[in-house]
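FORM 12-B: Structure-to-Sequence Request
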């Protein structure tokens, strides 16, 4: 790790040397090229570190969800946002009215799971091996919805914390042509509804290769 830690210091050193080296000096161009190369290496290291952290985060989420589909874990997928919600009564029920759910918004899919009210305190004990829980997991898988199946994210304007999602049915289901809708009330006080909806719509737009994400946000 020491060479990596030295790179920022070397970058600062080159900056100072360049400041005190006239452009007429034959070493000036070489110093600039060296600084550029160091910055490229630092960018590569930071990006690689970010990817590693994203993969670790993905495995942590997977290990926290009981019955989570294995296909959730992918090197091309990253977590965008997380939101704790309470399911509202609609014609389509995911878990049940009043149930506390967790929405994990990934770059190309939405994982919906139920938050368990009581979890064994040993579930994340040091005895757990390779990230596996020794007891009940804190979440239970409910549904995995690809963002390609999402229709709209609707802001329920007569409520400060409520919103709704509509999506197409799975192709393997008999009534696949029927759109489904579910409504939630945001339970996480740290989550701003407008920002969450905007982020959700942006990801839908990126997956649909559309630039106008505002139109996906229907009120």
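FORM 12-B RESPONSE
SEQUENCE OUT:
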């Amino acid at each position: 790790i020491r060479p990596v830690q030295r790179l920022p210091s070397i970058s600062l050193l080159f900056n100072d040397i360049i400041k005190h080296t006239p452009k007429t000096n034959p070493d000036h161009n070489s110093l600039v090229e060296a600084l550029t190369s160091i910055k490229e290496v630092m960018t590569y290291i930071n990006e690689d570190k970010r990817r590693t952290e994203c993969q670790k985060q993905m495995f942590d989420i997977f290990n926290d969800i009981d019955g989570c589909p294995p296909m959730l874990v992918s090197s091309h997928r990253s977590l965008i946002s997380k939101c704790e919600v309470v399911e509202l009564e609609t014609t389509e029920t995911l878990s049940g009215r009043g149930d506390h759910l967790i929405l994990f918004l990934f770059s190309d899919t939405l994982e919906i799971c139920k938050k368990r009210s009581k979890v064994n305190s040993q579930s994340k004990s040091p005895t757990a091996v390779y990230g596996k829980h020794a007891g009940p997991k804190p979440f239970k898988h409910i549904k995995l919805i690809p963002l390609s199946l999402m229709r709209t994210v609707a802001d329920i304007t007569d409520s400060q914390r409520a919103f709704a999602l509509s999506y197409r049915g799975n192709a393997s289901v008999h009534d696949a042509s029927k759109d489904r809708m579910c409504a939630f009330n945001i339970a996480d006080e740290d989550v701003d509804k407008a920002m969450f909806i905007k982020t959700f719509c942006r990801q839908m737009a990126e997956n649909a290769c559309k630039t106008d994400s505002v139109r996906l946000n229907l009120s």
